[in-house]
Amino acid sequence: MFVLPPPPRYPGGGYGGPGPVIETSNTIARPTEDSTDHLVVGEGTYLLRDDIHLATPPPHPSEAPVHNPNPLATTIGAPTAGTKLSLVVLSPTHSANTRLYRLDTANSTPSQLPQSIQESPHETTSQGSDAGSHSAAYSTRGGPDAHTFGEGNPSLALANGKEGKDKRRKPKNNIVKSNSSFVSRVIPHDSLNKRIGEHDPNGIYAFANVNRALQWLDLTSEKKEDQLAKVLFTKAHALCHDVNAVTKSINHLDVVIGFSTGDIIWYEPMSQKYARINKTASKNGSINLTPVTDIHWLPNSENLFLAAHADGSLVVYDKEKEDAEFVPENPTDPPPSNNPQNGKLQILKSVHSRTQKTNPVSYWKTSSSRINAISFSPDNRHLAVVSEDGSFRIIDYLSEKLLHLSYSFYGGLLCVCWSPDGRFVVTGGQDDLVCIWSFDAGECGLVARCQGHNSWVSAVQFDKWRCDGRSYRFGSVGEDCRLLFWDFSVGMLHRPRAASVRHRNSVASTLPLPRRVPGNADSSSRLRSNSNLTNANAEEEDAVVHGVEPKARTPFLPPVLAKKVDDHPLSWLAFTEDGIMTACNGGK
Amino acid sequence: MTSFFGRFKPGTSPASPATNAVQPVKRDPNAPQPTPLEKLLGDAGPIRPDGSDKFFGYENFGSTCYCNSIIQSLYYSVPFREQVINFPCRSPPEALERPPTAPTDPLKINTDVPANGANSALSPKGRNSMSSPNAASPRKSTTTPGGLIPPPPMQKPEDNKDSPEYKKKQALAAGPVLAMDYENSKAYGMSESLFTCLKDIFEAVIAHKSRMGVVSPNKFLEILRRENEMFRTPMHQDAHEFLNLLLNEVVDNVEKFSKQRITEGGEETSALANGTSLPASNNTGWVHELFEGTLTSETRCLTCENTSQRDEAFLDLSVDLEQHSSVTSCLRKFSEEEMLCERNKFHCDNCGGLQEAEKRMKIKRLPRILALHLKRFKYTEDLQRLQKLFHRVVYPYYLRLFNTTDDAEDPDRLYELYAVVVHIGGGPYHGHYVSIIKTQDRGWLLFDDEMVEPVDKAYVRNFFGGEGVLACAYVLFYQETTLEAMQKEMEAEGLAAAQQASTTMNEEGIPQPVKSNANGVGVNGHVPGTPSLDLEEFVNLNHAHTAPPVPVSEHAPLESTLTSLPGLSSKKSRTNLGALGRKEKEKKKEEKERKAAEKEAEKMKKQKRKEAEQRLKEEAKRADDELRKALEASRQSAAMDEERRKATAATATTTTAESTPPHSHPHTAPADPLEKVKEKEKENTTFGMGSLSRFRHSSMSLRGKPKFWAKDKDKSEDKEGNTDAASTSRTETEDEKTEEGRKNKSEKNRFSLGRKKSTFRL
């Protein structure tokens, strides 16, 4: 279940230690029968299945491994991020919502699910059918009103229209034969095509960025530890990547990778082609020079993806357009330094702009601090953004408006995830808390803080197979190496305040659950936050800015399960239908 | 002496007015490259009188890095520094001379007490006059004559230029070196102690003309070693133990001094009753105000279910560590329930005898500066000695506490990390300490003995620890802040980072519009800003009430905004401290009276803030000295104001002053000077700040904060013991306040007197 990072870099205790351990191939470990690595939750027991070590790439030869014995060396390393994976199932349907609400009943054969803690088999079948009913319910909700980004803008529509339906366009350059200085080396599997051919369409491909490498794994294969391809980059570290859910097919995958240098690569692994976007070393000038901290394809879009940059910018790029030096289109906007608090979304280039010949398609600025994660809502209308200054924003990206802005208890927020039905958002951050926010008809309020992690929370994820309209399950992992499960139900989140205060000190007490109609509950929480605004800009109409809730007034929620799953800080988490996958920092 | 050094090494004293950033400095081609710190300070304006722009390294006399790192951390705590230099009173520059040249005037500390006029004559070329651009003051520098001629900067080719050793050597060679081998305790009217030595160092650093240099804390160490056997060996010492000892010593010294004064000088203090007093000397509890919090340990006897509570004060918190945890969780663990059983049973008064019990400790009163000691040195039984824990413990830049009691005041206080003391080494018996400190407006700096170097904010996160990572955080200093200040800072940092990115691209030859300096973005991710801006931020820090707003705190920042004049801040914050406890209570009371007026005032304030911001923006391009002149002008007017008021003081001062809502003041004050700039520009700036500093406190209280004025009186009266006579002339409300103040004070005294080693160890 774990994708492990390399062993600690400094095995000895020597002064400074030797350089990083160089690994060239991934290894896999399967636990023995009497392993203690299992989790017991209500729905069954999760067992540790596989434990894959992804090789950490050695530093590029051009960068001589600078061994600095001075621990105080003030040189700042490039920003790095923990290993992140994305899973792709090439399921037969291509509807826009498949990926979010997919029904992978075929996967319930336990043996097909590798690398994961797995439920005991007898549970699996029932879960499978459950999942089916849930997803059916969701898709009726989200299906028809799918808007597309930038609709109504003829110049953009034109560009989109060019896309041939039958044939997916591939990037121009062959990555294997490339002599770009950006890409260092590509190691495709010897029999790549054969393996692709053998791949079960319901199986899972995984992409993982580890330091300066991107690995492509087939998790359904027997030899899942052998990567299908590995791309090594010269200097840049891949910080994030995403696979396009719309365009994926048996012979096509669109992957965008964001780098610490600010570069973005559009990579098509099947044909090993790539294209560069936002080339930071280019002479034409680039769009944004700060690291790409998170990247996502716009829902329902074949070409457009959104990159979050470390300076607080959100930029929509078109994978097929050329870059051009970016000049803000409406320079009348005051620089954000003058209004740090109102948090208004600055639109430096609107999607409705007339000039759409080149990238960026649109360019927004949330604030000046680093965006740590972004997440699209399941109904494809909203975007949740969390950043290093602890702010949490919900943006209606279709109309380019900020709907909500509030703050963490303290410290930066690191991760964000929507509930499968889009009614709740959870965030995790440097205050060791997971926060649950309700989001209903544009109104957002803090419903509970979840205390249980012993360190920063690095990833949160809903388990969509165990969420219905009433109760929700989500998991979180953190720097404390632990995986925590949380269950909450709509009723319990809106306990009277007094009860919650009492509850605060006794984590073990049972939760009294006075039922309330969810709709009303939301309004109460909204009132609550309004009542203690610290902010001078309350009167601003389009963006609701919220202060920080005092801890005495917010319910605290204990985890239902906490398990130390690794020896290294964890950085990523995903639920599959009958398993959980976690990943930890692949090299600091 | 300093000017000599300036000539000797032109690059090292950018502080001297001639080498201001306006004209590029002509550099000796042979002179070494400017250090990163010099580059950072290249665009600095005139030196400020509060010491916030001094970046001195400290000489290491062999394993004294524990001392250096802690002193640095304390120096850059704004309130602590202010308190040290202002207690018992800020010494006039003459007093900073080395003892032979400065015959200590026994009356010195009292000179400024009765007559302001006399004193203002005294200090036209006071320390503050150094900030005026053309003060090529002949004043003797505080550097010692002997051993000061720095060895010519030899560049051994074999020396790696990037090695800290090389940099330290360079720093020492570059000087100026402040040899603190003298002490001025008599000038302060105190007996020689660690506190006076600390004050000597702070004062000397602040008074010195250079922005950079090296301090040799000889005397300080001498006294430290004389009085504490533990630190006598040249061995590696524990920085946390030293911090604790130093804080306790300071408390003791200060208290001893004021007790002495109370017994000595009834008459002296009676002169203070006219309201122009210096109250800081009465306020002995400032270390407590800053560092002390209260822990409540609740013990519940499992036999009789009786809960007993006991309060204990702490100056810092020592928390146990766990692998892969965060400071937050360590603090939570600290307050987790603990079973008292077996050999460790609890003696229950209720049922008598040893019983099993549950004990938990929570924080009842939150300190303004939270010093967190991460217990990295742990005794291991099997090895029979201390071992260093290399656990990875992450610490956020901002922090709130979870483990507060339900009745704690401002339980959601927001803290910001401002200093990290890092221990480098494999074990507790050897190694090195450095500190990484966030300075007011120069971002994060690394202080490694003699060397001072700017670092990136992300650098602070390099010391979480982890297996095989030798350098890890050992003591963390968090200071209170506000959500607004935090957001502002974040924004500024982000901007600076963006700008830096674009400038690096510029260097690589890609044409890009250079942003003007109007943003005032510094090199190091910080906004140098105008002095008034900075101080506004910092003043906010004096008011603990952070984000999740307690209604009571609503107007705290309003009161404080008045102090956005740089020169005023020092005196001001002293006042704040002195009256902090009191003020809290007052606020509750005033709250009722004000509620009606508050909304309107809030609006006004908002508007004014906008206006002020606008104005500040416009002014941002002006040179700093211009601004300073303006501010001085305002101070002059303040002084005039004060004199005018004093004339009427006997009659109805307090009542009239009180009737003006303090809200209306804050922004008129900073606005005034700016408007007057043009007229006043020509005015003689040698009307020294030093002299004005005598007024500062009192004029402040009269103009903006009548309460303080009243209270100061109270305080001195308290001392005299004849409060009755004085208070009869006052209004009722004031009387109440007086009483409260007294109560508060007596509490405080009792508290601080009763305690010596107040660190709480678990």
UniProtKB/TrEMBL annotation, chain A:
It holds the Pfam family WD40. Transmembrane segments: none annotated. The keyword rRNA processing does not apply. GO terms for biological process: carbon catabolite repression of transcription. Residues 520-537 have a biased composition (Low complexity). WD repeats lie at residues 413-447. GO terms for cellular component: cell division site; cell tip; nucleus. Residues 107-180, 324-344, 512-543 are annotated as: Disordered. Residues 107-138 have a biased composition (Polar residues). Keywords: Repeat, WD repeat. This is WD40 repeat-like protein. Component of the regulatory network controlling carbon source utilization through ubiquitination and deubiquitination involving creA, creB, creC, creD and acrB. Required to prevent the proteolysis of the CreB deubiquitinating enzyme in the absence of carbon catabolite repression. CreB deubiquitinating enzyme stabilized in a complex with the CreC leads to the expression of genes such as those in the proline and quinate pathways. SUPFAM superfamilies: WD40 repeat-like.
Automatic annotation (TrEMBL), chain B:
It catalyses: Thiol-dependent hydrolysis of ester, thioester, amide, peptide and isopeptide bonds formed by the C-terminal Gly of ubiquitin (a 76-residue protein attached to proteins as an intracellular targeting signal). Residues 648-671 have a biased composition (Low complexity). Its EC number is 3.4.19.12. Residues 156-167, 581-632, 673-684, 709-722, 739-750 have a biased composition (Basic and acidic residues). Residues 753-762 have a biased composition (Basic residues). GO terms for biological process: protein deubiquitination; proteolysis. The keyword Hydrolase applies. It holds the Pfam family UCH. Ubiquitin thioesterase component of the regulatory network controlling carbon source utilization through ubiquitination and deubiquitination involving creA, creB, creC, creD and acrB. Deubiquitinates the creA catabolic repressor and the quinate permease qutD. Also plays a role in response to carbon starvation and the control of extracellular proteases activity. Interacts with creA, creC and qutD. Belongs to the peptidase C19 family. This is Ubiquitin carboxyl-terminal hydrolase.
